[in-house]
C-alpha cells in the first residue's frame, strides 16, 4: 500500500480523532469527516464537513479514498433508528467508489456470555435491541464482503479508556472525581473482570487492519490488555493519586456522571455487562500483526495526565 494513498475517517469522536492522528503519523494522507468540519484536528489531517446519512453524501465524503474507516456514532437512544441507514449509505458509497471499508464495532452482538471469555469465535447471541441491531449490521457487512460487493473488515473494541475518552464507565464518571476528591461512580459488581480497550489501541488496531487487506472479510478483536476487576483498577488509581476514591457503586441503572436519564434509560438493556464478567481476548490480532496492547498501568497514567489538563482547562 502506498503511504500517499488517501485514508478517510468518518466520525470525529475519540476513536475517529485518535485514528486520524495515528494514520497521519504512519505517513498516510488523511481526511477526517464529520457533520461540522470544525474543531481540534490532529497534525497532518485535513478535516472536512460531510453527511454520511445518504449514499450521495457518503460518496462525496470518501471521494478518492483507498481505505475508509467507519467510526460514526449517534446519541445512544437514536442508534437503532439511525445506524442501519448510515450503514447502507457508507456501504453503498464504498461499493461505488471501490474503497476498502474498516468498521469500528462493539461487543454487543455477543450478548450475555455468562462470564465466558469472548473470542472472535464466540456465538452472536444478543437479546437486547441494540445487540441484535449491531449483529444484523455486522452480518450485512460480512455478506457484502462474501458477495464481492465491497472489501470489509470489522474491529471490535471493549469499553474505551484513555486520553480524550469522556463517555465511558472508565472515563468521565471516574477520573474527574478521583482527581478532585469528589464522587467516583461504578456500575454493577466491581469484583468482576472487565476488559477496557485503550483508545490508542483502538486506533492502532484499525489502522493496522486498514494497511493489511489480507485481514479482510472477518471480525478482529482490537488489541486489549488483560482484564482486571474494576476494584483492582480503582485501587491502581488510588495508588497513583495518593488518596482513596469516594466510590459509589450503583446496582441498577440510573443517571450518573456524564450519563443523563435519556442515556441510562437506553443503556439499561445492556446493564448485564456489569453483572457478569466482560473479558475480551485479542490474541488473534496480536499474533497476526504483531500488535501489543498498551499496558493498563500506562493507560491509567496517561489518562490521569490528560484529565488533569482537561480539568485545568475547564477552570479557565
From TrEMBL:
Residues 11-216 form the NAD-dependent epimerase/dehydratase domain. Signal peptide: none annotated. One of its GO terms (molecular function) is aldehyde dehydrogenase (NAD+) activity. One of its GO terms (cellular component) is cytoplasm. Pfam families: Epimerase. InterPro entries: Epimerase_deHydtase (IPR001509), NAD(P)-bd_dom_sf (IPR036291), NAD(P)-dependent_oxidoreduct (IPR051783). PANTHER family: NAD(P)-BINDING DOMAIN-CONTAINING PROTEIN-RELATED (PTHR48079:SF6), PROTEIN YEEZ (PTHR48079). This is Epimerase.
